Fold this protein.
Amino acid sequence: MSENLVVGTVRAFRNGRHLVVGRDGTAMDVVFDGEGSPKIGGDVIGVVTRDESGTARMTLKRTVTEALLEGRSRISLAGTRADLSARLLAKVLSRFRTAVIAPGSGVTIERSPTSDDPDLEWALGAFRPEADRLAVALNVIDVQAVARASWKPTALKDLTLPADTEGNGRAMHDLARLLRSGFHPDCNRMIENISGMREISVNFVLPYSPFAGVTGFCREIASMDKGHFPLPVMTISDARRLSSARHVALALAHSKLGAGSKGQADIDQSRRAAHMANCFADAAAVLAFVASGGSVRVAEAYADLKEASLHFGRRAGTSELHKDVLGEATHRAIRAALREDVIARATTSKDIVAEAVKIARRMALPSNRFHGEADVASEMESLSAKSAAARIAFNLRDASYADVERVAQTYREEIRSLVELQAGSDQAASRLVTFGAIHVPLRLGHVFDEETRHLPTAEATIRAQATVGSVLADKGRLARRLRAKTGAPDEGEALEFGEPLAM
Amino acid sequence: MEPGDIRAAEVQAAFLIISATESKASCYVSLPRESNVRFDSVGRDDQGGFLRTDDGFVMRLSADADALDDLLAKEEVVVYQVDEDNVFMAEYPVETIPCEYGMGLSA
């Protein structure tokens, strides 16, 4: 059904319909949808659709911007101060709903209410209703589009973010750091002090790393060293869904874990608060995963990976854990979410989030576990983590050649799948060569090299890009662009004065 | 400022929202509260994008060329004016001038 955005004035009421005259003078009889209708003489902005009987139905919008942002749009900063423009943009976008953002051509942002990436769209679909209800505007970055876009790790300041409301470039700095480190997934928040009130909002969500695959995802979750190969049977799509759902859910944590119904929780204020937010996000992610038909075995393996992090995440020679390992150990919450009665209750977005809140409050480790300089796992936890590690990891260091070859076959298939997924773009393929290498396990480097040998490297991709000089030398480019955008006839079709008419 | 006085200033904070499907676009621009500027056209000349009042006062937009192409191909552009605290001040449609060369605004 085609839609048309109309800006005009209500001129009359006749035959049960309002006559709306647009600014260009076109008139149409419409029926207003929704509550109430404007008075005669009032200006209106609305989206007009035709129903089965051909009647024009207008849904009123507050502003043209509201209507524009309901569909796919392109945002371009147009001021001399990018920081002030980004701040203004963030203020405007914070009043609108969840969207996926991606770099467009030049210094522009493509914004869309939905994503073409099926795994990301699934995660958004799982939590969008609740985010809309809580008025949390999630700016989720389309990582596939960023992977395909032109940017150099050394010049990331050219990329523009719509949510840097702090105006000091912190969000941009954080995003640049995450992209340079191979698209490390993250949920970036900010706190703004407005009239003595602390207002927490989401700068951006980087949902998953497109170059990590299953191996990289599992190694990251379990804090696994390169000498181990993760064994969980999950697909690249499963890994992406779990990661996306976790980080989108994490963006709701400050709204759901506050004291009281309207209070916000500053979940970055302490290690315990961050741990509780992680418990909430992981519980919500597995509930959403299982509710949409995902395998319970995969979700259980996710819990094992989290538990194994208490084994792999120890500092060498001590019982102390590396930074953030205990805070990320959410296996108790994940297993609580996988109880049959909880799964049965968590069917809608609202129910999933409500169950996850209860689980996080009940299963998060107590505050006294986070008091010391460094976190430690208890003896019982260490034993249990060791056995979880044995279930989900294969020791490559001590393995025989034949066993390593068997694992290498699994790894080769995964890298082939990743190469296929990035095959459409030289930029993305060259980044797979660069960032995929971060996750290559010990004794399997040859597999990665063999499978990515034919892909372009980052240096080759940069060399192939057009230089500024070559673009400027093309004098007819602007004229051609204008003709293309405005639908003006091509040079060949244009009729010039003095040209003899064909008889 | 006298009528016909052509001056150019740069807009510090502005952004464009260009719909991929609709024939409309919006231009948010931040100006000091006391400026009392109201634009009547958005366009491009040999120095790039601009917003212009009916008495010739020009403010430069530093949008990239491709975004300006898309903006100026739209049937209707609505300007949203906010003050330096991002408080909304005015909303109005402006005329689009896709390409205006040889004005010599800098002269």
Observations:
- The radius of gyration of chain A is 27 Å.
- DSSP finds 21 helices and 13 strands in chain A.
- The interface with chain B takes residues 3-5, 7, 23-24, 63-65, 67-69, 71-81, 84-85, 87-89, 91-92, 105-108, 478, 481-482, 485-487 of chain A (CB under 8 Å).
- The first strand of chain A starts at residue 3 and ends at 14.
